[in-house]
Structure formats: C-alpha cells, structure tokens
Amino acid sequence: MRNGDQVLNQVLAVASARGLRDLRIAASSLFPVHAPLVDHIRNGVVTRICTAYMSGPVADAVSRGLLPTPVVMQTHGGRARAIEAGELQIDVAFVGAPAADRCGNISGAEGRAACGPLGYAMVDAQYARRVVAVTDHIGDYPLVPIDISQEQVDFVVLVDSIGDPAGILSGSTRPTTDPVSLQIAETAAKVIAASGLLVDGFSFQTGAGGISLAVSQYVQTAMRERKVQGSFGAGGVTGYLVDMLEEGLFRSLFDVQCFDLRAVESYRRDSRHQAMSASLYANPHNRGAIADQLDAMLLGAAEVDLDFNVNVTTGSSGRILGGSGGHADTAAGAKLALVATRLVSGGGPKIVESVGCITTPGESIDAVVTELGVAVHAERVELRDRLLRYGLNVLDISVMRSKAIALAQEVRATPEQGRRIVGVMEYRDGRVIDVIREVSHAR
Amino acid sequence: MRNGDQVLNQVLAVASARGLRDLRIAASSLFPVHAPLVDHIRNGVVTRICTAYMSGPVADAVSRGLLPTPVVMQTHGGRARAIEAGELQIDVAFVGAPAADRCGNISGAEGRAACGPLGYAMVDAQYARRVVAVTDHIGDYPLVPIDISQEQVDFVVLVDSIGDPAGILSGSTRPTTDPVSLQIAETAAKVIAASGLLVDGFSFQTGAGGISLAVSQYVQTAMRERKVQGSFGAGGVTGYLVDMLEEGLFRSLFDVQCFDLRAVESYRRDSRHQAMSASLYANPHNRGAIADQLDAMLLGAAEVDLDFNVNVTTGSSGRILGGSGGHADTAAGAKLALVATRLVSGGGPKIVESVGCITTPGESIDAVVTELGVAVHAERVELRDRLLRYGLNVLDISVMRSKAIALAQEVRATPEQGRRIVGVMEYRDGRVIDVIREVSHAR
User: Which of A292, A347, B117, B171 has the greatest number of beta carbons closer than 10 A?
Assistant: First the structure.
C-alpha cells in the first residue's frame, strides 16, 4: 500500500506493546509512512529487514547503521522466489485488505482503500504459515471477484483504517512537460520504434515516472500509426496503459499493483485487465514469468555507470533511497531494457564512473537514453546498427559521462562510508551482487 | 473432461508404446470413454489408481479384481487435500486444456472443447512436479482471462483433439418430468423452505440429476416469492444456477466445473461466476472451503441405510459404478445435507438395511426425502420439529425401508463377493472408512 499503508505500523505497535522482540520484517516495500519502525528498530522489536524498496526515515536509519543486521534488498521477483523456495519463511503475513468477507476472501477492487490487484501479497498469502487479513471494509459473503481466497486466510481483523488512499495510489502522476525530459522520452520511443520489436504482439512496461509516462504516449502514437496490436502491457499499471488497452493497442494488461484510480476502475470491470502475483510477474525460478516475456522495458536510474550498471537503491550520498522493485527483474527479462535518464540531477552527474551500488547489472541493460542521444551496450551490436540506420544519435557511454561532468555543478566525491555493511543486494536469483555500507552519522 | 476426455487415453497409449510399466493413475474421475485403460491394467502399464469417481469398463475391471492393488476412492476435497499434504505426489500432470498459449497459460472458456473452470486440474497444476498442458487450440499470447497460469506449466503439447464436447458437457440434462420424482423434488424444496435457512444469504448446491434440477426450480420459485437474495450457488454449475444468478437470486456462483454450455458462456462473461479449485471447493484441511459454507446441499444416492449412510460408489451387485465426487465433502460441510431419492430403482429397494459401501457417513446426512415423505436423522431434533410444524410428512427411515421392500419387485440378496479387497474408501480427511470387495467374475 506504499506511502498510504497503515497496517505495518499498527501491527508493530501491537507487537511492541506485547513485548515481542527480535522480529524480522519482510515487507515488500517500506515508505516514509513507516517512520515508526525506526523506534521499533531502536528498541530491539525489529532486528532484521528484507524488502524490495525502502525510502524515508527507515532507509535513513538503516543507512546510518541502526539495524543490527544488514537489510536484505531483494527484487520483486526475487522476493517471490525466496518465499516459494523456502529461503524466506513468512511466519505471519498481515495482508492489508481493501475489502474482505467473514471467511477471508479478499478483494483489492472494493472498499475505501481500493488499490487493485494485491500482486505482492498473493505470494505471502499462499506460503505464509498464518495469514491475517487486516481490513477496514467487511463486505457480504462471498466477496467476488476474489483476489486472495478464503482457503489461504486464517484470520480477518477489522480496523478503523488500513491506509490513506492518497498515499496508496500515486494518483497525480503525469507525463513530464519539461522540454529536456520530453526530448529524452521521444528518443526512447524512437529506440523502441527502431528496435524491430514494435510489431503485432509487442509487449511493454514502464514505471510511473514522468519520463516513462511520456514514453508511453509516444509509443501509443507509434502503435496507432503503424496499426500495431500489442499483446500486453504490464506493470504497476497506470491509466495510460488502460487507455492503450481500451483503444485496442494492447489485447491485455498484467497488473501486479495499480498506480492510479483509473487503473483500479479498469481492473474492476475489464477481464482483459488481469491480476498477476509477484511470482507470475517476475520470479525467475517458476515456469515462466511475465517479465521474461517483455519486449520493451523502460527503466529509470539514480546512477548509470560505464559498464551500464544501474543504481536505483542508493543516492549520491550513499544513503538508501529506493531499491530494485521490479527493476532488475524486468531488465533481465525484457528483450529491450532501456534506461531513460537526464545527464544530471540535483546538480550532480547521473552517468558515473562506477555506481555506488549495483541494483541491476549492466549485462541486463541494452541502452541508455539521455538528452544527448543513445548509448548502446557493447554486446548489442545489432541494436546499435538498427539505431544508426534509424538516424538516432548513438554515442559511447563515456561521452555521456564526460558531458554529464561538464554539465554538473559539482562532481561529488565518493561518499564517505564506513566499512560496516548495512545492506546486501540480493539479485533475483538469490545471489548477493553488491553490498551497501554505513554512511557517516554527520551526513 | 468426463466422458468426452481423450487426453488420458492418448497419454497412456504413448506411455505404453514407450514401454513404461507400473504407472499410478491419479485421475480426478474415470468414465466409460477410458475403456482402453483396461488393457493397460492387463498389460502392467498401470498398476495403481486413485480417483474420486469411476464408471464403465474400468470400474467393472477393477470390481472384478483386474488391478493388482486396491483402487483408492477419494472425494474431490480429499484428493485436493492429499495432493497439498504431499500424500499424493503427482509426478506429471497432463492437463486437458481447451485453449492454451505458447507459454502455457490455460483457459477453459475458449476453444472447441471449452468446458469452463478447470477446478480439478488447478490443484494438480499447482503441486505436480511437471505440468503438461495438452491442447487442441493454441491462442495468441497471452490468453486472458487465465484459468491456470504459465508460471505453473512446463510444457504445451498440441494434439488433434483433447475431447468430444458432447461428452465433456452433459448438455442435455433436464429437470425430471416424472410425477413421482417431481413429488420428491417438491418435498425436498419444502424441507429447505422449512429449515430456516432460506433467508438472505442462502447458499445452495445440487448435482445435475433430474431430481436435483427440479429441486432447484422449486427453490428458485420459493426464493422469488420470499424475496430472498442468496449469497452463492455452487457446484458443478448448470444453466439453471446461471438463471438464478442472472435473476439476482444469488449474488455469485462458485464453479469447479461446468455441466452445460450455458454455464460455460456465463463463466466466460460474468465476473460474479467465479472459478474455484477443488481445494477451495472442498479440501477440509485448507483455511476454509466453500463446501463448508453451504446452507443446503441436495444429494443423490444409490443406496441409503437405516443409519443414513449413503452409497454412491457401488451398485446393488457390489460393482463399482460411481464414487463420491463431492458427495461426502458437501454433505459434511452443508448445514442441511439432504438426500433425495426414490424408494426403489430398477426393481430393487434403495433404502437398505446397511449400504454395501459407505461413501458418505450417515452422521453427515440430515434428512432423506422419498416419495413417502422425509426421514430425519435422529440427532437433528430441531430440524425434525421445524418440518413437523411446516406440515411435512416426517417418518422413520425404517418405515421407508419397509415400504421400499414392499414396493420392490425383488429384494436382492447381499451380492456375492470374494474376500479380496479391490478398493478402499478414503474419506475427505484421509481416513479409510470402508472397503470394496471383489465381485465374482460370473456376475
């Protein structure tokens, strides 16, 4: 439930009051709203965390070394894999349920906090030793259509509120209107158009950032002009993908969680708008994840380095401010994994010598698009040729790096870090591919 | 796919040709169409069978002792439970898929052999070591809505035909028009009306037999008159339940498999018509099966005895001619488990001293309805009082027994049986509650 979630805080408040200590939290993500968790860490209530994304006070506290053990940063698919493999054993899953009935059938499409498919919770509900539906809306039995069914749910708990809809759905996300970002988006769409993938059966995913949404709109136009019918759009679904479904540009949507109310509404009434669990979405060890069927994936970046490694986990200060989510999963799965980013941000260069933390290995990234043009991974020779024939400005990533330095107001020094490891980066298959070190308390 | 299935025969033909021997078959049911299995038993290709229902040549052969090991007769819910518990390990699940795509997404709603939800196969697909989708219809990727998803499917095999739609769907099932059966149906409906359960939220399941369908129609009328809105109808769904959904008499349907094309069509387009796996349907060891939420369940019987035990597994000859399916599951789960049957059939009494084989223990049965009236289980005192107040003819089951004998053209002797056990009756929780013995070859 992202930054609107009130379930985690309520559960931990009770756990703390009951004197529970040494708990391990395996939330799919942690947001600024989860600030009370900092005190629970300080008091020894929580001693271990694994998650696919963290930002806000908890991320800051972990970066400063408050948690006695390293946080395990997973991918969405890797988290599902770990749960299914038994590596990550969930003792109790507390599932924020926008609506539930007396037997534990859960729907994400109804209730005050309706948020669409409960893709991340589906895996927990299937594998956890005990499953508790926490809801603020009890509907008549049976609540259909069902997202998580009564056969998986042990308890239903009614609370005043499970969350703030304004924080659950990002809602106000709009395509960028900034000219430089629009130029980047247009170039990214041209890369897709030139890739040879934009034919009938095309499949596509983007994040919900401003550049991503602008790319969607350029791709929408291109599909319309070429009379291409795509097979599916996937994601974190926004109203922009819904528009493309309804226009017939995609035959279906796979949705692990909705990003806005228009997506929730579409999920509620359109059977082509299909829920997917985090496992179906991105688990590399099941018998075929949707992410592995993607043609084009549009990715963001906090930093990209000369080896095309991408960091969306830590900032230039070395502090944790995000995490993979599905970044590494979709990059690995998609035929065309495209990073779209400005050269500089907040005064600092985003193309760097070597990323502070590897979220997604460069081997998964096909090309990086900036306002300067497109840098293609050295092994993607055929793609490079296609882009050149299409007339795109293809350049070396080191040229982007130089330009980024030139544009930057300051070239930051490598952040001061302690030796202590405060986080491990777990790739989707369970390998540790990097670590995160403590940042100094002063920073 | 019932008596239209061609997948089992095709798979075993290949297995036999490749020289495989000593196989164990865990089909959800076996029908006359599966006659070739008899030769596979004779040749040692198949040495063990477990199933929830068997009729036709295979059942005859097993009854005569052809199989070297006793057949394990399960319930639908018990089969799901055994698979989930790891008692019944499925090495390879061959799933008859009316439609599939290249990645293994399966839909029961499309294709030439469209049959609706694949409730029984869902459990196998989730737990089998390998899952093979066998289909005669490959659709564009992705095939949505999905019944069994690509994350569970290892292989997709295209064959000329997976089955005969005429045998897959019973299709021509109609409510009885026979006056005696109609009278029984009317009485059964009155029992439901008198039970106190026919109020808002009412839930209901019947089989697809002629008496059952006639009861549905009487119940439909009663719900209309009382302005009752039921919560759900369940089953094996027929067009008659669909009518009640569409009339607003039920808010939803839970469907493990469709019995006719009208039900398939409803499943395809109405999100209130919800698929349920065999586990959600009837597994007693999950966290809440639908069968356990039933108000009224209408059951058939080959024999009922003085202890209310019901046999739907063997005939008066002692030969296997059916099986529990969901009989024992729904009888145990429903608040009102009602057996509706004529006193005699084929010249013999159906109310007997002691059933030849216990499919459903009498403790699960609340009342038996025949053309004579209603016999109520001794422990259901409150129900008995309600029926008497309602003016129904309540009588002792021994009176029904006497009348059945009087009506019967012949009172059959206990069938001649050998000592050898050819089948064990496994209750839904895994207990063996009865055995089936060999019938003489002469019979």
Answer: B117
